[in-house]
Write a structure and sequence with these properties.
The chain is globular. The termini are far apart. Helix 2 packs antiparallel against helix 4, helix 2 crosses helix 5 and helix 11 packs across helix 13. The chain is about 50% helix and about 0% strand. The protein is mainly alpha-helical. It folds into 2 domains: about 140 residues, Peroxidase, domain 1 (Orthogonal Bundle), CATH 1.10.520; about 130 residues, Peroxidase, domain 2 (Orthogonal Bundle). The chain has a two-stranded antiparallel sheet with strand order 1-2. The structure holds protoporphyrin IX containing FE and 2-acetamido-2-deoxy-beta-D-glucopyranose (5 copies). The site of protoporphyrin IX containing FE has 27 residues, from helix 3, helix 8 and strand 1. It comes from Amborella trichopoda. This is Peroxidase. Keywords: Calcium, Disulfide bond, Glycoprotein, Heme, Hydrogen peroxide, Iron, Metal-binding, Oxidoreductase, Peroxidase, Secreted, Signal.
Length: about 325
C-alpha cells in the first residue's frame, strides 16, 4: 500500500518534471554570458558573405525540430557504425550550413566549454539569420540539450515533401503540434533561399495553377530531364530579403513548389495568404510567434541528452 502510493507519487512527480521542463531566454546568462553575441557575430559574417546562408541556417533548425524535436540530431555525421539524418531524402544534397555551425561551436567551446548545445545554436542562428535578412526578431528560448541518436526514417517520414497537398501539409504540421495557421506563417520562410529543379519540376511542367510566363522562365534552368540540382529562388521577387513577397507571389500563381502554391489554391488557407499580402506587420508578427513554438518541439532538458562538444559527433 505504502509502496504503491510512493510509486504513484514518484510517477506523478517525474511526469510533472517532464511537462514543466521549460526552456528559458536567460539559460546561458551566467554560464556563458557571451554565447548569444558570439553566435550573432558569426551568423552576420556568414550571411554578409553569402546571403543564401541565412536561408540555409533557418532551414537547419526546421529540419532539426521536425525529427524527434529540436535536439541537434540533424547535425550528426554518418560513419561506419552510425547512420544519421543527413542522407534522408529531404536532406541529401540539400541541407547546408554545417561549417558555419562548426565554426560557432568551436568558438563557444573555447569561451565556455561544454555549455552551449548544438540544438540551441541552431535556434539562435535561425533567428539571427532572419534578422540579418530584414525579418522580425524574437526572444529565443534556450536550454535544449543534444541527442545521442538520430533517425533517418523519421527524417524521411516527418519532414514535409514538396509534393504534399494542403491537407497533407496541415497534417504534417499538426503532427508536431503546429496549427494550419502556424504552417502558413512558417512557410513564409520561403521568402528567402533556393530550391533544386528536382523539387519543382512537376509543378512547372505538369501543373496548371502556375503563371505561364513564370513557368516558362523557370524551364530554361530546369530542363524536363537532367539538371536536377540547378537552383532557382523560392521567392522570385526578392530572394534575399525576408519580406512578405512570398505571399504576393502565391496570389499571382508564382509559387515555386507545388506545396507553396497549395497555400493559395482555392482552399482554407487562401484568406490568410491574402491577409499577409495586404499588411506589412501581420506576417512578421505571426512568423516570430510560430518560430518560438516550433523551437519548443520536444526539447531534451534536465539530465536527458548531452551538450556535444562537436556537433557532428556524440560525446
Ligand atoms: C510547409 C512545408 C514545407 C515544405 C514542403 C518545404 C520544402 C522545401 C523544399 C523542397 C526546399 C528546397 C530544397 C532543395 O532544393 O533541396 C525548401 C527550401 C527551404 N525551406 Fe522549406 N519547406 C517547408 C517548410 C519550411 C519551413 C517551416 C521552413 C523554416 C521555418 C523552411 C525553410 C526553408 C528555407 C529557408 C529554404 C531554402 C534553403 C536554402 O536556400 O538553403 N521551409 N523547402
Ligand atoms: C540576460 O542576458 C541578456 C543579454 O545579455 C540581458 O539582456 C538580460 O537582461 C539578462 N537577463 C537576466 C535575467 O539576467
Ligand atoms: C563565402 O561564400 C562563398 C560562397 O559564396 C564560400 O565558398 C566561402 O567559403 C565563404 N567564405 C566564408 C569565409 O564564409
Ligand atoms: C545522396 O546523394 C549522393 C550523391 O551526392 C548519392 O550518391 C547517394 O546515393 C544519396 N543517398 C541517398 C540515401 O539517397
Ligand atoms: C508529367 O506527366 C507525364 C504524364 O503523366 C509524365 O509522363 C511525366 O513524367 C510527368 N513529368 C513530370 C516532370 O512530372
Ligand atoms: C560514429 O558516430 C557516432 C554518433 O556520433 C559516435 O557515437 C561514434 O563514436 C562514431 N564512431 C566513430 C568510429 O567515429
Amino acid at each position: 500500500m505504502a509502496f504503491s502510493l510512493l510509486t504513484f507519487v514518484m510517477a506523478f512527480l517525474s511526469l510533472s518534471a517532464a511537462s514543466y521542463a521549460q526552456l528559458s531566454s536567460t539559460f546561458y546568462n551566467s554560464s556563458c554570458p557571451n554565447a548569444l553575441s558570439t553566435i550573432q557575430t558569426a551568423v552576420r559574417s556568414a550571411v554578409n558573405n553569402e546571403s543564401r546562408m541565412g536561408a540555409s541556417l533557418l532551414r537547419l533548425h526546421f529540419h532539426d525540430c521536425f525529427v524527434n524535436g529540436c535536439d541537434g540530431s540533424l547535425l550528426l555525421d554518418d560513419n561506419a557504425t552510425f547512420t544519421g539524418e543527413k542522407t534522408a531524402r529531404p536532406n541529401n544534397n540539400s541541407v547546408r550550413g554545417f561549417e558555419v555551425v562548426d565554426n560557432i561551436k568551436s568558438q563557444l567551446e573555447s569561451l565556455c566549454p561544454g555549455v552551449v548545445s548544438c540544438a540551441d545554436i541552431l535556434a539562435v542562428a535561425a533567428r539571427d539569420s532572419v534578422v540579418v535578412l530584414g525579418g522580425p526578431t524574437w526572444t529565443v528560448l534556450l536550454g535544449r540539450r543534444d541527442s545521442t541518436t538520430a533517425s533517418l526514417s523519421t527524417a524521411n517520414s516527418d519532414i514535409p515533401a514538396p509534393s504534399l497537398s494542403l491537407s497533407g501539409l496541415i497534417t504534417s504540421f499538426s503532427n508536431k503540434g503546429l496549427s494550419s495557421s502556424e504552417m502558413v506563417a512558417l512557410s513564409g520562410s520561403h521568402t528567402i533561399g533556393q530550391a533544386r529543379c528536382t523539387t519543382f519540376r512537376t509543378h512547372i511542367y505538369n501543373e496548371t495553377n502556375i503563371d505561364s510566363t513564370y513557368a516558362t522562365s523557370l524551364k530554361s534552368n530546369c530542363p524536363f530531364s537532367g539538371g536536377d540540382n540547378n537552383l532557382s529562388p523560392l521567392d522570385v521577387t526578392s530572394p534575399t530579403v525576408f519580406d512578405n513577397a512570398y505571399y504576393k507571389n502565391l496570389v499571382n500563381k508564382k509559387g515555386l513548389l507545388h506545396s507553396d502554391q497549395e497555400l493559395f489554391n482555392g482552399g482554407s488557407t487562401d484568406s490568410q495568404v491574402t491577409g499577409y499580402t495586404s499588411s506589412s506587420s501581420t506576417f512578421p508578427t505571426d512568423f516570430a510567434k510560430a518560430m518560438v513554438k516550433m523551437g519548443n518541439i520536444s526539447p531534451l532538458t534536465g539530465s536527458s541528452g548531452q551538450v556535444r562538444t562537436n556537433c557532428r559527433k556524440v560525446n
